[in-house]
From TrEMBL, chain A:
Belongs to the nitrite and sulfite reductase 4Fe-4S domain family. Gene3D superfamilies: 3.30.390.30, BFD-like [2Fe-2S]-binding domain (1.10.10.1100), FAD/NAD(P)-binding domain (3.50.50.60), Sulfite Reductase Hemoprotein, domain 1 (3.30.413.10). Residues 5-285 form the FAD/NAD(P)-binding domain. The keyword Manganese does not apply. Residues 558-620 form the Nitrite/Sulfite reductase ferredoxin-like domain. Residues 807-837 are annotated as: Disordered. CDD domains: NirB_Fer2_BFD-like_2. This is Nitrite reductase large subunit NirB. Residues 813-837 have a biased composition (Basic and acidic residues).
UniProtKB/TrEMBL annotation, chain B:
NCBIfam families: nirD_assim_sml. This is Nitrite reductase small subunit NirD. It comes from Marinobacter azerbaijanicus. InterPro entries: NirD (IPR017881), Rieske-like_NirD (IPR012748), Rieske_2Fe-2S_sf (IPR036922). Gene3D superfamilies: Rieske [2Fe-2S] iron-sulphur domain. Signal peptide: none annotated. Pfam families: Rieske_2. Residues 6-111 form the Rieske-like [2Fe-2S] domain. The keyword Protein biosynthesis does not apply.
Length: 837, 122
């Protein structure tokens, strides 16, 4: 059967989500898929657009990668605008030619509405929707003082935040009597206005702009209908969106009276081969200007194309929870009490700046809607009551009263029905979470990976954690953090016990705080903690038996019982002389030689007894141990930087060497990798490391908690434009906080995801010192850096320690008879089982 | 061919590593000798060969106790073996060979069955 052609017009968040959903179904194989995007950039996250001004790049905001499209055989045509659709011939037209389709998906989104005000065509009148728009705003804001946003809705306030982060004096002009008129009521709007003004954004409500003219003190002057005026250097219109339905109109698809491509429950338009999803689509007379409903349409359409007869879009919840300019705002369901007979309960604390309103049904049994300003901590509970029709308690006001005044605690996860939606971005219900837990997920991180819950806007993080913990507990999965049967403590508890009581040996710790003799779980974990606290040699008599075999012999055991050796090559920089020594040693001991991914050289096939002799030679040539065997810093990869590269803006090699020498030898809950790139081209792949540093014109951007491996994760942007000193101080703090608080064998990514509050919390602790521990963290790191020793140098110089490396203690010259070798591509390798010698 | 038993001196106390193992060569092949000074008896000897892989590595595993049994964890794939019985805790069909071991003054002796070479030659 020849494949059908599916064309998608529009590569925004919803268009991309549709492709992700479709790619996961068997139907993906039935289609040749082509995507046309008007913008030159791959789909990106418009919800977090204002982060573009606080350091995020397109790559940070991007939803997918070009590689993903290639892997899924999706032909991606960016910057190619579709100019016409011929429904009879089933073709579309672009400046490059005509393309036939069997099925066509319109995901063209919306465009910003610019009110018809005289003078609105001035070059400093702008809109806020695309990254290109943001570039224009940045250019316009250069060297001027004031900016105005027209529109006090959700997007308008986001835009005001963007102007503020550009250093402008920001104003918001709103036609309605209050901010966010759709989501908030009079009291809520008034409180939000007050809070935003406290943050330095001036709010002007009930202002109708009549014209925009040349200004006297600034570029422009806005004249209002009440004869007042406001001078400003630039104006951003954010007065709502209109569905981008021009293409659909031009080929006579059914269009709503006020715009929007009419779709049915299957997201199909008046033409059975043309479908529409997202903000361009009009369902049941409604346009949905939020991303979650768009995603729901995308999922529905993917199911429809996959042959699911039942799939239907049945509307979407428009509840929202946001942080606007740092102020919590929440709006749920029928916030304006339009349901007949609806009643209100209000709580308004002007002193604390908290406003909460509940809209309840006439019989007082169900929650219809709610408004929250200043504190969203009640949002999750209220949303669950509203969405699931859970019967309200007898005194429903307790739900919004502060606990000190008799307020009820948050709704426990047990009270939620299976159908309760936990993550609306990815449509994950409590039942879905129970399902993956039953299928084997046993912690928060794996539930997130499996369901994608809480990986969209992240608003449901706290709720998700509660549900997962409660469900695990119900199944008798030990949510117990006990490290093993010998200690009733988590790794973090053990760390504190060791530190506070000054415990220096495993023996003392288990005698005083545990039971039995220990095992291969707790011994290496405690060895790591002792190393972090006191930094004694890992082969000291008390510590030897605690180490994993790799640490015991300071080399990596391979499958045939021999070891590999990785000398440290800081930043991947090595002199020809040292390179020659590596070659000579490898040749002398017949070691298989391979370059690692971390810009080092790995020498394989050394026997236990050869290790000290090999290291003696390496140390004499100036090498140090590379800790490839330890749960510790491995390597700091670097690109060549501005010393050689035409594009480099900082000395990335120099910084990589500084970082590698600073953190080498540090013991951590798991291995730690770092990289430094000399410019935004990112040749060192720093974003896939636990700590990634990328040079900017002004210093360094720091990304944290990335990793490669089985579940790759890009690091999160943590801080921008840091000086050398600031960079090192920040890394010191994050590393130490990780080492002290992570679970055993927990990489930084999972650690961060499991911190309640996640990245924001980590930023508060490290950048704002919210726990008041930063001095201590820095001091602890300084102590560790000051007591570094090359473990191999100490070991080869100590005859007692060298004794450990005898293969057979009573037969020094005896070779292990089970090691058998062959030659492949001119190098020695172990024989595999059954292979003739 | 007739098997005989001998108590071979395999090493001295100074060769042992507390709470850990060392490998020795015996007439019966490689043997791992563990010294757990906080237990009675404190000495254990099992085959040095990991039964799952056939590689000679068990002396390099981490020792400890699980549910009261003295164990060593294979450094390759982490299965646990009871040091007294040789029983693998993860797979009841797998065992490692155990050897009687004792301290004779400063010498560590392991009882190994060996092939009687004289009668083999006869």
């Amino acid at each position: 059967m020849s494949k059908k052609t599916l064309i998608v017009i529009g590569n925004g968040m919803v268009g991309h989500h549709f492709l992700e959903q479709l790619a996961a179904t068997p139907a993906a194989a039935d289609f040749e898929i082509k995507v046309f995007g008007e913008e030159k950039l791959l789909a990106y996250d418009r919800v977090h657009l204002s982060e573009y001004f606080s350091g995020s790049t397109h790559a940070d905001l991007a939803m997918g990668t070009a590689d993903w499209y290639a892997e899924n055989h999706i032909d991606l045509c960016l910057g190619e605008q579709v100019t016409g659709i011929d429904r009879d011939k089933q073709t579309i037209t672009t400046p490059m030619g005509d393309y036939g389709y069997d099925e066509l998906v319109l995901a063209t989104g919306s465009y910003p509405f610019v009110p018809p005000i005289k003078g609105n065509e001035h070059p400093n009148c702008l809109v806020y929707r695309t990254l290109e728009d943001l570039d224009s705003i940045r250019a316009s804001a250069d060297g001027v003082k004031t900016g105005v946003v027209v529109g006090g809705g959700l997007l308008g306030l986001e835009a005001a935040n963007a102007l503020k982060s550009l250093g402008l004096e920001a104003h918001v002009v709103e036609f309605a009597p209050r901010l966010m008129p759709v989501q908030l009521d009079t009291d809520g709007g008034a409180l939000l206005k007050h809070k935003i003004e406290e943050l330095g954004v001036q709010v002007h409500t009930e202002k109708a702009t009549t014209e925009i003219v040349e200004g006297e003190d600034a570029r422009l002057r806005m004249n209002f209908s009440d004869d007042s005026h406001l001078e400003t250097d630039l104006i951003v219109f954010s007065a709502g969106i209109r569905p981008q339905d021009a293409l659909a109109r031009s080929c006579d698809l059914a269009i709503g009276e006020r715009g929007g491509i009419v779709i049915n429950d299957q997201c199909t338009t008046s033409d059975p081969h043309i479908h529409a999803i997202g903000e361009c689509a009009l369902w049941s007379e409604k346009i949905f200007g939020l991303v979650a409903p768009g995603y729901t349409m995308a999922r529905t359409l993917a199911s429809v194309l996959n042959g699911d007869q039942e799939a239907a879009f049945t509307g979407a919840d428009m509840s929202t929870k946001l942080k606007l300019l740092g102020v919590d705002v929440g709006s749920i369901g029928d916030a304006h009490a339009t349901t007949p007979g609806a009643r209100n309960i209000r709580f308004n604390d002007e002193q604390a700046g908290h406003y909460r309103r509940m809209v309840i049904s006439e019989d007082g049994k169900t929650l219809l809607g709610a408004i929250l300003v200043g504190d969203n901590s009640h949002y999750d509970t209220l949303l669950q009551y509203a969405l699931n029709g859970i019967e309200l308690p007898e005194q429903p006001e307790t739900l919004i009263l502060p606990e000190s005044q008799g307020g009820a605690p948050a709704l426990g996860p047990d009270a939620l029905p299976e159908t309760a939606s936990i993550c609306s971005c990815h449509n994950v219900s409590k039942g879905d979470i129970c399902g993956v837990i039953d299928a084997g997920c046993s912690d928060l991180g794996s539930v997130k990976a499996e369901t994608k819950a809480s990986t969209g806007c992240g608003g449901c993080a706290a709720l998700l954690k509660n549900v997962v913990d409660s469900e695990l507990e119900k199944r008798g999965v030990e949510v117990s953090k006990d490290i093993c049967e010998h200690f009733p403590y988590s790794r973090q508890d053990l760390f504190n016990i060791v530190k506070v009581n000054g415990i220096r040996t495993f023996r003392t710790l288990i005698r005083e705080h545990g039971k039995g003799h220990g095992c291969d779980i707790c011994k290496p974990a405690v060895a790591s903690i002792l190393a972090t606290c006191w930094n004694e040699h890992i082969l000291a008599t008390d510590h030897v038996p605690l180490q994993d075999t790799n640490d015991t012999f300071m080399a990596n055991m391979q499958k045939n019982g021999t070891y590999s050796i990785v000398p440290r090559i800081p930043g991947g920089e090595i002199t020809p002389d040292k390179l020659i020594v590596l070659g000579e040693v490898a040749k002398e001991y017949n070691l298989y030689t391979k370059i690692t991914g971390g810009q080092r050289v790995d020498l394989f096939g050394a026997t236990l007894s050869e290790l000290p002799d090999i290291w003696e030679k390496l140390i004499a040539a100036g090498f140090e141990t590379g800790h490839a065997y330890g749960k510790s810093l491995r390597t700091v990869k670097s690109c060549v930087g501005n010393t050689w590269c035409r594009y480099g803006v900082q000395d990335s090699v120099g910084m990589a060497i500084t970082l590698e020498n600073r953190y080498k030898g540090l013991r951590a809950p798991h291995k730690v990798k770092m990289a430094v790139s000399g410019c935004t081209r990112e040749c060192a792949e720093a974003q896939s490391k636990d700590f990634g540093v990328i040079a900017t014109e002004n210093g360094w951007n720091l990304y944290v908690c990335g990793n490669g491996g089985m579940r790759p994760r890009h690091g999160d942007l943590f801080a921008t434009d840091l000086s050398d000193e600031e960079l090192i101080r920040t890394i010191d703090r994050v590393v130490m906080f990780y080492v002290r608080t992570a679970d055993r064998l927990q990489r930084t990514s999972v650690w961060m995801e499991n911190l309640e509050g996640g990245l924001d919390y980590l930023k508060q602790v490290v950048l704002e010192d919210s726990l008041g521990i930063c001095d201590e963290l820095e001091q602890h790191m300084a102590d560790l850096v000051g007591t570094y020793q090359c473990e191999w140098k100490t070991a080869v110089e100590d005859p007692e320690k060298r004794k450990r490396f005898r293969e057979f203690v009573n037969a020094p010259s005896k070779k292990d008879p089970v090691q058998q070798w062959t030659t492949e591509r001119d190098q020695r390798r172990p024989l595999v089982e059954g292979e003739p010698a | 061919m007739r098997a005989r038993i001998s108590w071979d001196v395999v090493c001295t106390v100074d060769d042992l590593v507390p709470e850990s193992g060392v490998a020795v060569w015996t007439e019966d092949g490689p043997v791992a000798v563990f010294y757990l000074p906080h237990r009675l008896p404190a000495l254990f000897a099992v085959s040095h060969t990991d039964p799952f892989t056939g590689k000679n590595v068990l002396a390099r595993g981490i020792t400890g106790d699980l549910k009261g049994q003295p164990v060593v964890a294979s450094p390759l794939y982490k299965q646990h073996f009871n040091l007294q019985t040789g029983q693998c805790l993860e797979d009841e069909e797998v065992t490692v060979k155990t050897y009687p071991v004792l301290l004779d003054g400063n010498n560590v002796r392991v009882e190994v069955p060996t092939v009687n070479k004289e009668s083999a030659a006869a």
